[in-house]
Amino acid sequence: MPLYDFKCRKCKKVSEFVRPSNFNIATCPTCSGIADKQFPMTKFSPPRPFVCYDLGDEPVKVNNLKHLERECRKRGLDYEIGPTKYTKRERIKDKLKKKVEEKKSAFA
Question: Could you give the CA distance from residue 27 to residue 15 in angstroms, rounded to a whole number?
Fold first, then answer.
């Protein structure tokens, strides 16, 4: 029979019991209250150290989305990871540079 975690309604203590899978309640060993079966809430996703993207010349190993964005910028490709502080700051800098260039060209 499998081992399950049960949480007491009264004292909130979690205890392990060997029970058949169709048993959803047990008696708490501490306070003799009713303990409910706890269902695992875990989602397993295997680690992804990198993903290969074909960005032109050769496949590139990318660790995360910011790394992907940097690699795209190096190659002159348009790619933004979304509205984060990093990209927002970069966009503001680009707008300011364009305004300065427009003013310089207007005076020239």
Answer: 10
Q: Where are the domains of the chain?
A: 3-37, 45-82
Q: What is the pLDDT of residue 48?
A: 59
Three-state secondary structure string covering the chain:
CCEEEEEECCCCCEEEEECCCCCCEEECCCCCCEEEECCCCCCCCCCCCCEEEECCCCEEEECCHHHHHHHHHHCCCCCCCCCCHHHHHHHHHHHHHHHHHHHHHHHC
Q: Which residue has the tokens 């207007």?
A: 106
Reported confidence tier of residue 73, pLDDT bands at 50, 70, 90: confident
Which tokens belong to 73?
Answer: 């910028």
Note the pLDDT of residue 42: 61
The tokens 């260039």 sit on which residue?
Answer: 101
Q: How far is residue 89 from each of residues 20, 48, 92, 101, measured CA to CA in Å?
A: 57, 28, 5, 19
Residue 30 has pLDDT above 70, yes or no: yes
Dig out the tokens for 9 from the structure.
């309604």
